[in-house]
Design a protein that fits this description.
With 199 residues, the chain is mainly alpha-helical. It has helices spanning 28-63, 92-119, 125-136, 138-147, 160-168, 172-198, and strands at residues 70-75, 79-84.
Length: 199
């Protein structure tokens, strides 16, 4: 007496292997969605970070005594993100504070995001990671811009660190050393933090 075994059509082949499918492999849609979230968050984050940086200058100018200090989203010739304040009544320390105000504010947000990312679940990484990167890169951009800009710089918020060096009376060579050292040190700090996160 022989027995026949019926194999359901469409699910398995005779060898027991699954039939090839033309559908997207598992996880492809999820990866595409995460990539889209990262890109959109990074682009929006850059716009927000730039404006928060400029708002930082305005806020510190207000704290330094200029209660008429203001911020303008759209202006010429910069395009957007302009701060207006009067530094004529400020002393050197107040001018230095205004000059560094933009970076200080972005760094407060950077380290807040860093701590939040460590506490948040992995599902928040596609949003928090690009936001953290956008805010964290601000000092590197400022150091690089300053290294490429010769002294003196009297516009307090045009090239932040170069203006700060001018206010402090630094020489061109010493300023360049500080700018390059600052950029390398800041990058090294994040490389080290990244190593600790992975280990």
């Amino acid at each position: 007496m022989t027995r026949s075994i019926r194999i359901p059509a469409g699910r398995y082949t005779a060898s027991g292997q699954a039939e090839p499918t033309t559908a997207n492999p598992p996880g492809t849609t999820g990866r595409a969605r995460r990539t889209g979230v990262v890109v959109i968050t990074a682009l929006l984050g850059m716009f927000v970070a730039l404006n928060i940086h400029e708002l930082g200058h305005t806020a510190v100018a207000w704290l330094a005594g200029d209660h008429n200090a203001s911020y303008q989203l759209h202006c010429e010739p910069a395009g957007f993100g302009c701060n207006h304040f009067d530094a004529t009544r400020m002393n050197t320390s107040e001018k230095v504070a205004v000059t560094l105000g933009g970076v200080l504010v972005t760094q407060v947000i950077t380290w807040s995001l860093f701590l939040l990312r460590r506490r948040a679940g992995r599902r928040w990484y596609p949003v928090l990671t690009p936001l953290l990167a956008v805010f964290a890169v601000d000092p590197v951009l400022q150091f690089t811009q300053a290294a490429l800009t010769p002294l003196p710089e009297y516009d307090l918020t045009k090239v932040d660190f170069t203006a700060c060096a001018t206010l402090l009376g630094w020489s061109q060579s010493f300023s360049l050393l500080v700018f390059i050292g600052g950029a390398l040190g800041y990058v090294a700090l994040w490389v080290r933090l990244g190593y600790r996160v992975r280990s």
